[in-house]
From TrEMBL:
Keyword check for Transcription regulation: yes
UniProt keyword terms in alphabetical order: DNA-binding, Transcription, Transcription regulation
InterPro entries from the UniProt entry: HTH_HxlR, WH-like_DNA-bd_sf, WH_DNA-bd_sf
Descriptive protein name: DNA-binding HxlR family transcriptional regulator
Taxonomic source organism: Chryseobacterium defluvii
Single Gene Ontology MF annotation: DNA binding
Domain annotation HTH hxlR-type: ranges: 16-105
UniProt keyword Transcription regulation present: yes
Highest classification ranks of the organism: Bacteria, Pseudomonadati, Bacteroidota, Flavobacteriia, Flavobacteriales
Length: 105
């Protein structure tokens, strides 16, 4: 089978940016986290207060998964008290216009 005939390769080449974004943000709390990250850097304790119904385990899982796919980057702030902030990556910033269009529906 040639590369041209590989259905997986053709399938990934045909995915539109909106589909890619939806796939990246599928899961509990991920769209809310992305939306809040557009506005400002994120802190875990603030997210717990801002996202209604969230819990520590689900939120930490969502943050880790967003970090793994390159949407968020984790930065340890070495000031006292020591804390962690999450920022959008360049990849994520390029997806903001698509996200804004999807929010309008």
């Amino acid at each position: 089978m040639s590369k041209k005939d590989d259905p997986k390769k053709n399938e990934s080449a045909e995915i539109c940016p909106a589909q890619s974004l939806l796939k990246l943000l599928s899961g509990k709390y991920k769209p809310e986290i992305f939306s809040l990250a557009i506005q400002a850097p994120l802190r875990f304790s603030n997210l717990l207060r801002q996202i209604e119904g969230s819990n520590k385990q689900s939120l930490s899982t969502a943050l880790r998964e967003l970090e793994e796919v390159g949407i968020l980057k984790k930065v340890v702030i070495k000031e006292k008290p020591l804390h962690i902030e999450y920022y959008l990556t360049e990849k994520a910033e390029s997806l903001i216009p698509i996200f804004k269009q999807l929010e309008g529906f």
